[in-house]
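ESCALATION

Customer reports they have been waiting on this structure for their group meeting. Please prioritize. Original submission:
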Amino acid sequence: MGNTAMGGTTAILQELRRTNDRLDHMLEHMNGRLDQMDDRLDRMDAATRAERTNGISRHQNSTISSPYQELAVLQAYSDNTPIPDFPATPRDIARLTDANLCAILRSLELSVAGERLDKEGRLRLAIGLLEQPV
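Update from on-call: job pushed to the front of the queue and completed.
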């Protein structure tokens, strides 16, 4: 009778360990999913903050009347930081390398398709400048 009771207890303990292992695995999976959700929320928060800041910068840039006036720098949507190599003035847009122009457009989540003038026009609109170069 003692061996039967011990065998039953051992079987119960083994089943509890397996159940505990499954619960640990499920918890790890849930934590991974929560981390992914947290990352998505952080990206959405950065994009929302960048959009707010960029709206103010676009408004400021829309008042520019000279190609030599300083531009308000826009923020990257991915992390809400100032866009690297952002042109200092409207005149500097034409001086950007194609790689820098494309990097800026990508930071603003805009297309990099088309000819150089298309890209510059897309950037001018995103910055808040008038369609015609100042």
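Sent to customer with the following note: The CA atoms of residues 99 and 105 lie 10 Å apart.
Escalation resolved.
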